[in-house]
Each structure stands twice: as structure tokens, then as C-alpha cells.
Design goal:
Belongs to the small heat shock protein (HSP20) family. This protein is mainly β. It has a domain at 29-126: Immunoglobulin-like, CATH 2.60.40. The chain has one helix and seven strands. The protein has one helix spanning 9-21; strands spanning 32-37, 40-46, 55-60, 63-70, 89-96, 107-111, 114-120. The chain has a four-stranded antiparallel β-sheet with strand order 1-2-7-6, with no helix packed on it. A three-stranded antiparallel β-sheet has the order 3-4-5, with no helix packed on it. The chain is elongated, with a radius of gyration of 25 Å.
Length: 143
């Protein structure tokens, strides 16, 4: 049997969760990192313990939606839960994509509990070098 040493820790955790989300079972956010890698914008979401089949990624116009559900691992009549700290339920996040990102080219991979979305940057938004022309040769008549 598992014994908790901190009797007020559970109450504190529950109070913080309720204050941040208004519910007792969902975390406030789905943690993410976003960065640019060359000509691609990358967004990585932490989704440990989520089955890949329970993840939905949708794009509508310029809004990207990610929805994932973490379900209980143990089910059955003979299961008696002693401690449950890992949040269960549905997690969702929406991102508005700027006009410089191509919503038709989004790809998604899921590895080691991390959902990674790669969004191509449009051609017009990519940095480009502008050539600098030298002035034309001057002749005696030009002066």
C-alpha cells in the first residue's frame, strides 16, 4: 500500500488545479514549445501517457487545433486506486497561424510522449538575399 507523507500536499495540488482550470480533473494547459527551424515552424506538445490514436490535429482556415485524451490505464472491477495524481481527460489547445505559415503543409509525429507539428513557412516569408548592383561604369561624357 502507498502512504502519502505530506497530508496537505494533495489539498494544495487540488486547490491549485481548481483555481487554474475551474475543474478537479484537468490541468491548466497542454505545455508546448514553439520555434523556427530553417524554413519550418515547429510546435512540440508534452502529452505523456496519451495513446497516439487519442490525438486529433485539425486545421481550419488559419486555426490549428490539437485535442488529446489521456484515459485511465487500469480499468476493471478488481482495480482499487490508491493514489491518482496524473491528470486524466481531454486536453485541447488552439493556435492561430500567421499568414506566413502554410496550413496545408502541416505534418505531425508522436514520439516518447511528445507531439511534434511541423508547419512550413511560405515562400514569400522566407528570408532572401537581395543582390546589390554596382553602379554602371562612368565615362568622360557623364561628368
Amino acid at each position: 500500500m502507498l502512504v502519502r507523507i505530506d497530508p496537505f500536499g494533495e489539498l494544495d495540488r487540488r486547490a491549485r488545479q481548481a483555481f487554474l482550470t475551474g475543474t478537479w480533473s484537468r490541468p491548466a494547459v497542454m505545455p508546448m514549445d514553439a520555434y523556427r527551424e530553417g524554413d519550418t515552424f515547429v510546435v512540440a506538445f508534452d502529452l505523456p501517457g496519451v495513446d497516439p490514436g487519442a490525438i486529433e490535429v485539425d486545421v481550419e482556415r488559419n486555426t490549428l487545433s490539437v485535442k488529446a485524451e489521456r484515459r485511465p490505464l487500469l480499468t476493471g472491477d478488481d482495480v482499487e486506486m490508491h493514489l491518482s495524481e496524473r491528470p486524466l481527460g481531454v486536453f485541447a489547445r488552439r493556435l492561430v497561424l500567421g499568414e506566413d505559415l502554410d496550413p496545408d503543409g502541416v505534418t505531425a509525429t508522436y514520439d516518447a510522449g511528445v507531439l511534434t507539428l511541423r508547419i512550413p513557412i511560405t515562400e514569400k516569408a522566407r528570408p532572401r538575399r537581395i543582390p546589390v548592383a554596382a553602379p554602371p561604369e562612368r565615362t568622360q561624357l557623364d561628368t
